[in-house]
Structure formats: structure tokens, C-alpha cells
Amino acid sequence: MTTIAFDGKTLAADGQITRGVSTVMTLGQQKIFKSVGVFDVISFAGDWEPVVEFLAWAVNPDIENPPAGDYTVIFVIDGVVMCSGMDTPFNEYVTVKKCEIDAWGSGSLVALGAMHSGKSARQAVNLACKLDVFTGGTVRSVRIVK
């Protein structure tokens, strides 16, 4: 799985990929992508298999629907953070209210607790890397609110 956290200003994600109970990549998988099609930022939690297809769809969304699967897409358009579980139609997304915190993935509860205690999104994901076996590797972040 993964941990992605948003502290109202910054979106942060770990860099570990797991499949079932096995670690596939432990260090630096990029999970945050900037400037893809109409999206300012896209990040993924869950099944990693459809991500390449989703990124191709994001560049040319008129072709077909994005790939369905057991994953969540967190995306930003014009500074608004939204998320969609890809086991439902993509247009059934949820908007994260401005300056609210949120987190996704297997370490989301750890991250939410850390952010409610005053930690940044990046610090929250780093803590999840220590406490959640499905979270690890290099933490990357991108500032959403200017």
C-alpha cells in the first residue's frame, strides 16, 4: 500500500511499493506527479498496476475512461485537492476542503494522528514509514497552497 498525507498546504507520499505482504520496491518509487494533462498534481495509493495506464489517460482523457482498479487517485486541479477511489467511476470524487488535513493508504491513521498533533504532511509520512510495514522509502512532497 502506501501513505499519502495532506496537511492543508503540502501533499507528501512515501516511496515503497508492496504487493500483498511482499515489498517490491523499498526506496524511491515516485508517487507524486506534477503537471500531467489537466492535473496540477496526481498521486496514487493502493494497487500500483494501473498507474501507468492512468497517467497515459490523464494526458489524453478524451480517449476512454481511466483504468478501474483497487486504487485511489489524489489529484489537484487549480489548487483544489480531490480524491477518487477507482473502484467507482472517476467522476465520483471527493473534494478536500481548503486547509483541511487528510490521508490515504495503509498508514493513513498514523499520518492523521501526527498531523492532528501539529506535524507536517512530510513528518506524518515519515512517522508512518516507521510504524506501518506497508509504508517506507523516500518521502517526497509538493506544496499545493502558495
Characterise this structure.
It is a single chain. With 146 residues, the chain is an alpha+beta fold. The protein has one domain: Glutamine Phosphoribosylpyrophosphate, subunit 1, domain 1 (4-Layer Sandwich). It is 20% helix and 35% strand. The chain contains three helices and eleven strands. The chain has a five-stranded antiparallel sheet with strand order 5-6-7-8-9. Strand 5 and strand 6 (39-46) form a beta hairpin. Helix 2 packs across helix 3 (121-131). The longest helix is centred in the C-terminal third of the chain and has 11 residues, at 121-131. It is globular. The N and C termini lie far apart (29 Å). The model has no long low-confidence stretch (mean pLDDT 88).
- Topology as H/E string? EEEEEEHEEEEHHE
Low-confidence stretches: none
Spell out the CATH superfamily.
Aminohydrolase, N-terminal nucleophile (Ntn) domain
- Average pLDDT, to the nearest integer? 88
The helicity comes to: 10-25%
- Which term fits the overall shape? globular
Radius of gyration: 14 Å
